[in-house]
Amino acid sequence: MRGALWITFLFATAVIVALFASSNGGHITIYFPPYRLDTSLNLFIASVLGIFIVSLLAWRTFAAVLDLPKQAAAYRREQRETRSIGFLSEAIEDIFAGRFSKALKSAEAATVNSALAETAALLAARSAHRMNQFDVRDQWLLKIQSPEKRQAKLVATADMQMDAHDAEGALATIEQLQKGGARQLLVQRIALKANQQLKNWSEVLKLTHSLSKREALHPVVAQKYIQEAIAKLVQEKSTDHEALLRIWKTLPKESRKAPKIALVMAQGLLSVSQYDIARGLVEESLDAQWDEALIDIYPKCVTPGTSNLSLAQKLESWMIKYPGEPALSLALARICLSQQLWGKAKSSLVGVIRDPKTKPPMKAAAHMAMAQLHESLNESTEAAGEYQLAAKIYSKIVINR
C-alpha cells in the first residue's frame, strides 16, 4: 500500500513539474564581469537542485567513511553479543542434558556480554555445583553483585546448599531472602527440607500447612510430613500435655481427622493420662472414617476407675455405621471385660474368633482376651487352652514372616 502511494505521489509531482516547466518562459541572467551568462529559469532551478543533491550525497558519503570505525566496532560488539546469547542458550541446554562441564565453559564464554554476565554466572555456579566443585561455584556466585539479581542469587544459593546437605547454610540464606519479603513456593520447599534435616519439627509442621494451603504439596505427602512431625513432637513433649494440646490445636480440621495423625496424638495424650481428650480425638476421626488402629486403642481411652459403658455405646453405634468389622467386636469385648460383663464379653470374643474375616493377629488377641476372661472366672483349664491357641497362631505368624 505504501509503495502504491509513493508511486502516485511521484507521478503527481512529475505532472506538476512538467506543467510548471512548460508554462514557465522566464529566464535569468548571471553577471561575472566582464562575463555574462543567460539561461532559462527552468535550467537554473534544475542546476541548483542538482548541485544540492550531489553535495548532499557527497557529504553523506564522506560522513559514512568517517563513521566506518564506529560501525565496525558496533558490528563486532553485536556479533559478540549474538555469540554470547548462543553460548547462554547452549549452557541452559547442557545443564538440562547433564553436560555440566560443557555448560560451565559455555556460561563462561557468555560472560563476554556484560548485560548477560551475571545470568551466565548463575548458570556457571549451577554447573560447578553439579560437578561438586564448590569453591568454583562460590567464586561465580561472588561475581553476582547487582540488586536486580540478588534474589535469584540467594534462591539458587539456598537450593544448592540444601542439595549439598548444608541445611544450616540454606536456612541462613533463606533468612536473608525473607527479610526482603520473599515467600516463593520454591523457597518454602527448600526450608521444609532443611528443617526436616535439622529436625525442627515445629517449623516442618508450619511449612507443611503453608504449602498445603497453596496446593504445593500432594495431600498424601503432606499428611506423611505432618504425621512424622507430630510423632517427633509428641515424643519430645511426651511429659507436657499442654504442649501436646497446643500442637493439636494448630492442626487444620482435615489433618485432625486423618487416622494416622489422630493415632499418634492420641497415643501421646494417653501417655500423659489425658484420657478424655484422647478419646475425643479418636471419636472425631472414627466418626469421619474407619481405621482399625484407632479402634484398637479406643478401649484405653477411659480414666481408670470410671465406667466404660459410654465407650461401649459408642462402639455399638459404629457397628451400625461400619458393619462386619471384627475389630469393633474385639474392642467391645475388652471394654466388657473391664466392666466384668462376662457374658457380653464372651459372646463378642466368640464372634471375633469365628468370623472368617478376622486376621490372625486379631484372632490371637481374641484368644488372649478369652483366656483372661476364663482366669477371671477361675476357669484355669479353659484359660490354658486359650493361651495355647493364641501361642499357636502367633508362632505361625512368626514363621510366615
> How many β-strand runs?
2
Distance between the termini: 87 Å
Q: Briefly note the structural class of the backbone.
A: mainly alpha
Give me the side-by-side strand order of the main sheet: 1-2
Question: Would you state the CATH class of one domain?
Answer: Mainly Alpha
CATH topology of one domain: Serine Threonine Protein Phosphatase 5, Tetratricopeptide repeat
Low-confidence region ranges: none
Oligomer: single chain
Description:
- Strand 1 (27-32) and strand 2 form a beta hairpin.
- Helix 4 (100-110) packs antiparallel against helix 5, helix 5 runs antiparallel to helix 6 and helix 10 runs antiparallel to helix 11.
- The protein has helices spanning 2-23, 41-66, 68-97, 100-110, 117-130, 134-142, 150-163, 167-179, 185-198, 201-213, 219-236, 241-250, 253-256, 259-271, 275-288, 292-297, 309-321, 326-338, 342-354, 360-376, 380-400; strands at residues 27-32, 35-40.
- 77% of the residues lie in helices and 3% in strands.
- Among the domains are: 75-143; 228-305, Serine Threonine Protein Phosphatase 5, Tetratricopeptide repeat, CATH 1.25.40; 307-401, Tetratricopeptide repeat domain (Serine Threonine Protein Phosphatase 5, Tetratricopeptide repeat, Alpha Horseshoe).
- The mean pLDDT is 83.
Can you summarize this structure?
With 401 residues, the chain is an all-alpha fold.
